[in-house]
Design goal:
3 domains, 6-stranded mixed beta sheet, 8-stranded parallel beta sheet, binds zinc ion, alpha/beta
Length: 633
Amino acid sequence: MRKMNSSFWVIQALLMAVLVPGVVRAQAVPSDLIVYPNLIVYNAKIVSMDDYDINANVGSTYRAIAIRDKRIFKLGTDQEVLRYAGPDTVRIDAHGRTVIPGVINVHTHIHDNAMNKWVDANPNTTAVKVFRVQGEDRAEIRKNVEVLMRERMGNIKPGQWSFFYLPNPAFGTGGGEGYDFLREADMTAAEIDEITGLDKPVLLAAHPAYIINTAAMNQLENIYGGKTEDYPEGWTEVGFADLGVEYRREVVVDGYFADKTDELKEILYAGLQENAAAGITTYSSHIMGIQNLDAYMRLFREERMPIRFGFTHYTGFTMNRDAEGFYRRMGDLFQLGNEYMWFQAIGLGMIDHGPPLFCSTMIDMEALAAEGKKEDYYEWCRYAKDTKNYQTIVTALSNGSRVVAGHNYGDLSADHYMDAIEEAMEKSPEITLEHIRSLRLSMDHGGLYPRPDQLPRIKNLGMMLGMGSAALSRSLPWIQKYGFEKYQGWVMPTKRALDAGIKVAWEGEGGVDNGLFSLMTPFITRENRQGVIVAADQAVDRNTLLKMATAWGSEYLMKEDDLGSLELGKSADLLVLNQDWFTAPQEDLDQTYPLLTVMGGEIRYLRDEFAQELNMEPVGYQLRYNFERGGGN
Ligand SMILES: [Zn+2]
């Protein structure tokens, strides 16, 4: 628990003097010394999640909680807590509803999602024009791309980006006609140039495959001051995977918004508010698009962050002509910031890609080399042992930085990251095993890892894992291709990791339109969005799942002294839920949502119906879920 400063105890003692009759007479206490709680939630089932061990125990429970100065001041029975209420204390009668700590989402992309929503809501913006291309096969895709380029780009202004989204299979499984179209370079940059001319930047995307035209390349060089070293050889003739997703996420914010930081700031603010409404009080992410960082920093300095953000710095690796030199000079910034926004780590970004370009021992790389596709290995395994990226991890770790693997999809890229950690230990006497363990390094996604034999190594290095249920859907066609029975247990193996003593934190990338908890429940059911059960034996119970999303999330962020559970002195981040997560029928769990979100003692979201019940005004963005509109999940 967080240590209290001495003035806190003085105030406590004085308060006791006021409140406990007969102990000391109160006439000596100046009234401005008395600070009452600003908020009390009572008549509630408060589940503290204060047991951090690997088990299904959710810890102490209470009826009431008092918050003062952003922190938890009292926990107890209604009677024990309400007696501290002062004249201005807001009292919230929860009518027996369940209260849990605010949810921690260790990997999501709030700013990217907010920007996508903004673009969809502003089809006439000159920031970017989005074209969604249909087509059953590659020939039809080509025809439709050409028609759109010839007929619909007329009023696009010079310098304005156009994104063409080609058909991509549902649920992020990757592959398909649009992907093949780009990977096989059915349309080269030179051919696109002929139609678009040389002043309208165009990006074609079927993630993780991309291609751009010459105007786009020139624009990138303008924005970032020169050619990036990582750009593939002969880029005008081939499609590529490296950096495509970065460009898609970056060029709008770093281009159009370069001189509109305040406008960008409000777009991010709206996205953060929406997530507060969904129940997230803390999240972690990389920042692609450096203008996003500038916009966040303005919110941070204006003290307007609706939720907490531990960000990973990512752009030192991406497009950096001397990444290793950059990190050699950067030094250790871990946790720099304040409780609303802080430097979480250097992020590797994408150590491999999403399917089908994942770096895994499932794929026979020697056979690939025999097919003359050895270069694919380095495109898929971006941090393989003999790459510059790998050496950069070693250098950054050796220089004392915390380096985490944000996006890691396959088991072989997990090996590469751990190879680099161990090489840093061999290289620098300061980087001992104890030091590495103290950094509590992490890898996200659990797409196709850990393999069972990786668990002792992960445990030995003192690491944590982030896992998101999207992997159950994304990995499906690929484990079906390489052997479902053999490989299903590699997808998000939550139970096996916990049994090996490795803590797992919850991540939810998919946006909050279906509610936060719908991104969690597949950890219980193991059912993916295609309706297939993947490795049923890796299921966890609902209590354990909530620990992943609260207590262990705080450990992943190394903020367990302040966040993750409802304990005296910790930051007051909590949710009042619409239903009892702990007793609701399992089939209803994904329709759990908050009625009230409190972050740092401030009400960040009060749902209108609950506001009405409390005779208060609604607060924050009034989020409505798809299931409320009669739509399914
Ligand atoms: Zn991600």
